[in-house]
Write a structure and sequence with these properties.
This protein has one domain (7-78). The chain has 3 helices and 4 strands, in the order αββαββα. It has helices at 7-17, 39-45, 73-78, and strands at residues 24-30, 33-38, 57-62, 65-69. The chain has a 4-stranded antiparallel beta sheet. The protein is of the alpha+beta class.
């Protein structure tokens, strides 16, 4: 049985392989703050999710339009 991709995984896959990744930005939790960086920079910093796991991503946007937003009490407090 194969695993189905989640919404975040679908967005990132599309950004990297079917669209211009320079248009995308990632906001992620870094201790008590939120850091926003371009997608390609995030992949470099996170070493392909080894250092910063995907579950710390709270927002993915493309040209200012939010494509993914993680809803939890912690992420709402950080925004």
């Amino acid at each position: 049985m194969t695993r189905r991709k989640g919404r975040l995984e679908e967005i990132l896959s599309k950004a990297l392989y079917a669209d211009d990744p320079h248009l995308y930005s990632i906001s992620y939790r870094d201790f008590d703050s939120v850091v926003q960086v371009p997608l390609l920079e995030f992949l470099e910093i996170s070493q392909n999710f080894e250092v910063i796991p995907a579950n710390r991503i709270i927002v993915v946007s493309k040209d200012g339009e939010i494509l993914y937003k993680k809803f939890s009490s912690k992420s709402i407090c950080l925004l």
